[in-house]
Amino acid sequence: MCYIDGSIDQATSTCPMCKVFRPKADRCPHRTETCRNSSLHPRHDVVHFKNAEVQSFNGCGYCKWARTNPPPARAGYNNPGWPGCCRPPQPQEFALIPPADWYAVSLVHRVPIPPDVKALLDSLPPVKGGVTQSATPS
To answer: The pTM is what?
Structure first.
């Protein structure tokens, strides 16, 4: 999950990973880092997670997006960031998100899990200590 460095969202948001994976301690265990790669995201510096439980939320999503060699209309100053990390994914981007990450992506961005991914996840046996299937959002 990325925030623009110094943004209102960064200053006022509760840790999105703590919303999904409740920490055992009183403090948020998640660490962030500021990416200042102005060649890949020249408009702003980006604060991102270093130790999120979910692959999609680790690292700078704006750098991830830029490294996919997007069309000029979605590069440089127009870099929207990685879908599911920096922003809610569009339907044509659903395949970029690993199935195991969809539960967290759906909670953080308030988007439904795609039906094919939900069917796959529901077909798997429950994981001990994992999220229950009844808690999975539609």
So the answer is: 0.83
